[in-house]
């Protein structure tokens, strides 16, 4: 890995929630950060402003990672602005819930396009561009282990990401690049809390023995560890950051 003053990270889906906290945490750790969003620039602009106000460097870039050309353009911009890429964190994703029998084709296609194809697009470009000794980190989910009704398509796309992660770790042999995934349990984000009753939220919070929802910084701390020097011996792993849920 390069020195702390030279490290560059791309964080997809970093305008809000877990992605935003990952971006700001990596900036505190000395990374120059590309803050990515797909629509609605205001939250992403706030993340960039927060990083810059704290003395960090950040580049705002709009790209739908389901589009290979947009993904390539984002990597181009990172290299043009900062000179290189050391860490790529793919936290962009969507969670659409419905029973399998009720899942419509358009929603299915969009879920696969963002969660799986998007992860593939980002992973492929990262494999081409990340400097030797770098890190590639995908976000998946611990829901894969609990088989909750209405989560089938989301779980399926994230299982695909886990397989992609583990194979890419093998394919990058010889370059000292680690490839891992972080699988959060329920995290108290706007996306997670929306539309859920207090009773359901409380029940999900008690699914783990620590009896609380995760917080965005719980996940950002794990990502920061994997992105840093001390995480260099962890490779090809799915790290389940869920308080012991499963």
Rg, Å, rounded: 17 Å
- What is the H/E string? EHEHEHEHEHEHHHE
Low-confidence stretches: none
CATH class: Alpha Beta
**Oligomeric state of this protein:** single chain
CATH homologous superfamily descriptor: NAD(P)-binding Rossmann-like Domain
Q: Sheet bearing the most strands, described?
A: 7 strands, parallel
Give the integer mean of the pLDDT values. Answer: 95
**How are the strands of the largest sheet arranged?**
3-2-1-4-5-6-7
The coarse silhouette is globular
Count of DSSP strands:
7
List keywords for this structure.
single chain; 246 residues; alpha/beta; Rossmann fold; seven-stranded parallel beta sheet; 7 strands; 44% helix
Quick synopsis:
The chain has helices at 17-28, 41-53, 68-82, 105-129, 152-171, 190-193, 198-205, 216-227; strands at residues 8-12, 32-37, 58-62, 87-90, 135-139, 178-184, 238-241. It is of the alpha/beta class.
Structure description:
The chain is 44% helix and 15% strand. The chain is of the alpha/beta class and 246 residues long. The protein has a single domain, classed as NAD(P)-binding Rossmann-like Domain (Rossmann fold, 3-Layer(aba) Sandwich), CATH 3.40.50. The chain has a seven-stranded parallel sheet with strand order 3-2-1-4-5-6-7, sandwiched between helices. Helix 1 packs across helix 8 (216-227), helix 3 packs parallel to helix 4 (105-129) and helix 4 (105-129) packs parallel to helix 5 (152-171). The protein is globular. The chain starts with 7 loop residues before the first strand and ends in a 5-residue tail after the last strand.
């Amino acid at each position: 890995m390069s020195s702390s003053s030279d490290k560059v990270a791309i964080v997809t889906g970093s305008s809000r929630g877990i992605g935003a906290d990952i971006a700001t945490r990596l900036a505190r750790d000395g990374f120059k950060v590309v803050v990515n969003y797909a629509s609605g620039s205001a939250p992403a602009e706030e993340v960039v402003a927060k990083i810059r106000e704290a003395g960090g460097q950040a580049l705002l870039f709009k790209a739908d990672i389901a589009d290979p050309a947009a993904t390539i353009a984002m990597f181009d911009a990172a290299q043009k602005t900062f000179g290189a890429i050391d860490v790529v964190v793919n936290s962009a994703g969507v969670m659409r819930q419905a029973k399998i029998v009720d899942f419509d084709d358009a929603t299915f296609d969009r879920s696969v396009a963002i969660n799986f194809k998007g992860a593939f697009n980002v992973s492929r470009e990262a494999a081409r561009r990340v400097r030797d000794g770098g890190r590639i980190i995908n976000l998946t989910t611990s829901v894969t282990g609990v088989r909750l009704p209405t989560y089938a398509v989301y779980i399926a796309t994230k299982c695909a990401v886990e397989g992609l992660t583990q194979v890419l770790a093998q394919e990058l042999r010889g370059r000292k690049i680690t490839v891992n995934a972080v699988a959060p349990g329920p995290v108290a984000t706007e996306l997670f809390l929306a539309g859920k009753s207090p009773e359901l939220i409380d029940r999900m919070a008690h699914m783990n023995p620590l009896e609380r929802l995760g917080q965005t910084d719980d996940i950002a701390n794990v990502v920061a560890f994997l992105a840093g020097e001390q995480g260099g011996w962890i490779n090809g792993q799915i790290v389940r950051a869920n308080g012991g849920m499963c």
